[in-house]
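Appendix B, record 7
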Amino acid sequence: MGKSFEMEIKVGSFVTIGIGLIMLAILILGGTNNFLTRQNTYYVHFQSVDGLITGTKVVLSGIQVGTIEDIDFDLKQKNIRLTLKVGKRYEEWIRKDTMAEILSQGVLGDKFISLSTGTRDTEMLEPKAEIPARPVKDLAMFLNKGDLLMVSLNSIAGSLDRLIKQFESKNRSETFFDGMSNTAKHLSVLSKRLSEELDHMKLKSAMNHLNSIFEKINNGTGTIGALVNDPSLYYDAKALLGGANRNRIVRNLVRKTIKESDEAGADKAAEKEKK
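Structure tokens (predicted):
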């Protein structure tokens, strides 16, 4: 009995140690060996954490420095709160201007939390403080927006297709173009009538203007009116012409003037020929 009991203890101890080593290996291979080191706790809030689970790695400038310990709703801020466990030896790199964001490994890779290193001039962030979060730059978000855009475009295309089909059905297209043709004809007739009316109005205005001028002449207004309506000018002209016919002196003077003018013209012509 003693030997049997002793053997059972040895076997049990061996199995327990083996199971412990296997669990330790799993934890190490899974990248969750942070429980062996001292860690600080930090918090970060996101509107969406799709693809993140507890145990997801936390990376600082490409180096894994911790994991996500807990994911829970924050009822006060109405978003998601992540509890991060980061190795204490990296605390000097966690500053007040450090930012946290959700990134992916490749296009379809696993999600992880990326922390930016703070500047040396900024104070260190105390443990259990909140790290500011950057907006999520997720490919799925852009794909979802693209899907929504495609749905909208398909809806618009469908509406246009239905509109065109309704337009083409029941000879609506022919009716539409006939209506446009009739409208163009009516506009042409209206334009012609308007042009004729304008010409008539211009002619009527010109006739009214001429009538006004003739009326002023008849009334003796202006120089022409005075010449036409003043009989004294007529008698003065008649007396002048009649006197010239009866007056020998005036008649000789006129003849002499004409003769001198002819002689002057002949002299100028002779001078030009000599030159």
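Remarks on this record: The beta strands are 39-46, 57-60, 63-74, 79-87, 100-104, 111-115. The first helix runs from residue 2 to 29.
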